[in-house]
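Listing S7. Sequence submitted for prediction.
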Amino acid sequence: MSPTSDTLEGILIEILHPYASRIELFGSTARGEASEKSDLDVLVTLRPTEDRPPLGLKWFELERDLSDALDRPVELVTESALSPHLRPHIESDRLLLYEDE
């Protein structure tokens, strides 16, 4: 069973908050076009290295933990690693879930 949008947002924020200063959805879920088989595309702006726990291979664990919790594949993409070829397609989809004050 898929989580509700409020639950989805809560899980993403709870798991990513220690690492992220900003969390956004993009892709089919952000556009409201997702099916039960759709993955969840998440754009993350990381906190500065000195302001977050060490990341390294933890990144892949975060993807797995989110996929398990949300019962669908999750693709994490950092703002800094976003391909210039994909950026124009993502810009129109971005849906802000969390941002540090």
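Caption to Listing S7: primary sequence and predicted structure tokens for the chain studied. The radius of gyration is 13 Å. The longest helix spans residues 58-70.
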